[in-house]
Amino acid sequence: MLHLLYIVVFAILAVLAVVNLVRNLVTLSVDAQRHYAPRSTSSGMTGMYPSRLVPHPELLDDTGNLINEPLLVMRSIDIEDARQQLDSLYNSSPSRTEDSQEEG
User: Fold this and answer.
1) Which UniProt keyword terms apply here (predicted)?
2) pTM (2 decimals)?
3) How far is residue 82 from each of residues 74, 91, 96, 97, measured CA to CA in Å?
């Protein structure tokens, strides 16, 4: 009898958890689609932020202008080229020279 009570309580808690999850997802969806009007004050500021949007500092160059070039450029290389580059890095590493001296 006690096992049946545990199963019923677990089922009720599972249903409540799923209902709560769905409710939170719906609330998050509604909040994401809501557009808030900026509050304007007498000084021309909207809330704590200025009226114009300030880009992230990594998107600016040294003079403060926006960068209009890709920030990450990837090129594909052959497997042999990658293997040669990795081998050259491995052979030029400081730990590699210590290992070869200990072996000899």
Assistant:
1) Membrane, Transmembrane, Transmembrane helix
2) 0.35
3) 14, 14, 19, 22
